Sequence to fold (637 residues):
Amino acid sequence: MKTHTQPHTNGSSLLHHPPKHIVKKANVKDYEKTYARSIEDREGFWADEAKKLKWYKKWQQVLDDSEKPFYKWFTGGKINIVGNAIDRHLETHRRNKLAMIWEGEPGDVKTLSYHALNREVSKFANVLKSMGVKKGEIVTIYMPQIPELPIAMLACAKIGAMHSVVYGGFSVEALAGRISDANSRVLVTADGGWRRGKITDLKTIANEAMDRSPTIEVCISVKRTGQEVHMENDRDFWYHDLMQLPIAAPRCDTEVMDSEDPLFILFTSGTTGKPKGLVHTHGGYSVYTSSTHRNVFDIKDEDRWWCAADPGWITGHSYLVYGPLINGATIMMYEGAPNHPYPNRWWNMIEKYGITILYTSPTAIRGLMRFGEQWPRRHDLSSLRLLGSVGEPINPEAWRWYHEVIGRGECPIMDTWWQTETGGMMIAPLPVTPLKPGSATKPLFGIEVAVVDDNANEVQPGEEGKLVIKAPWPGMARTIFGDPDRYVDTYWKQYEEKGWYKAGDSARIDEDGYIWIIGRIDDVIKVSGYRLGTAEVESALVSHSDVSEAAAIALPHEIKGNAIHTYVILKAGVHGSKKLEEELKKHVSSEMGPIAKPENVHFLESLPKTRSGKIMRRVLKARAMGLDEGDLSTLED
Ligand code: WTA
Fold:
């Protein structure tokens, strides 16, 4: 093992250079040269990346910027993401290659070759068609991490329907709101899933959510756990029943789509109000996810790729399902908790399946690190070649443990910064890039970033500012579903004159041009790498009959990165107690999902507000952390 260096949080850290054998085999050896070319001739670069895919008809224009900021990519082109993720592999040696290895939490295993995946997807696509699902319609998917989840996503895409995947850890309110916003007629779910040895009650939650969202006409459930669930006549069908009927024919034509036709919406939290549905397309998203996955993770045909994210979030969409399948990789998927039944569960699977690349979050690493090195040490992890990190900044301790204990000091860590809105990785090293622990390093090809102040001036090296992206890229979200004005206001308004995208993160760039992400500048919270909005937690709290007003903030947490702390004003006559605190925590958890459960609930007489009535969360945060409360001149009293 190599001796490790002491990383800093800025500037002059010692570099971790990639091992020689990694450099020798790298798909892209010269970052600087390729990057320079990708900026000088952006459209030429993306055209070359797009040519690696299967198009039914070639595009006429690479980038159409006539309606800024509503950019269009590869216009005139005809494509379907499934044509690339499945169909084209069937004509090659990959037909019989494993597309997916899946392990359920109780230990059951399923594998699917590309041939078998095609068959399952085609059958389910025909089932959806028989339920009247049409091109452009949005199907909501609410499932545990089982193979039928990617199958359902791919089946929608294949027939030109859009999917809206709702994370299986969300609860009634989150699911109901998303179904209604998407106007979904069809919901695909499961009776339940396995998590930490227990059954999650997906169908019960789905039933309650359907009661609140009357658009649903059809609900298809996978039988995963076999527990008793309520099925409504004329509405509810079992997946396995439908898949046995003649309607589930094994062949289905892949719909020819326009490059700009929408592929999916994915709801994510914003600064205010309800979560917004970001829209991604068939053309640009296919090009962007496959290109970034191939370049950053140096994908080879023999790789076994494990992205441990849930498909319910963007990381799962782009790098568990679409990017890797387009690149013809073998993907690994696991249903349950990383420490069930013992903290060696992940390490055991890496050894058992010969995983070559692991892509996960700092929270997962910190969570497993807590159990000690003896668990990974019991396993042969020598198949690992590269590691990845996503979702939140990775702290030096977690970086070092990941690098030394999991990666034997020999596997470079790709710390990748990106967002639901960006569709794919934006700032990340390549395997040949010298690393500084805690820095996502440099912008990827075709991506130009800057760190600026409110007046669009670039700040000095080492200074903190707002992260902006200076030019469009193919994977960018095209709009917010049903609310184009909000899309413009949220991301493009502040730097309108320059035409820059505002990421919502603060960052700094050091003297060597390495980028250090600091965190969100808005009311978005990253808890365990999951993205939540203070507004959603607050609205869950005030939906309780005892609460009149509520505020939520994020405070640092050793494992989760951030944790949610809340402050409430109770209705007149109601008194705060330990019992009520517990009840409110449970209420948020059952309305939104366990990830949104607050650490604590403080009862207050009043909340710090501006004279216009806006809650000053930064004042609450400063108080909680014992810091200077800052400028209080706008405080109401
Ligand atoms: C944060 C997840 C630091 C960031 C793909 C961003 C990160 C938000 C990193 C988007 C990273 C993501 N280092 N912070 N490598 N990756 N973030 O939409 O604050 O769930 O704005 O997409 O996660 O979260 P989202």
Residues 306 and 332 are 5 Å apart (CA to CA). The two ends are 60 Å apart (CA to CA).
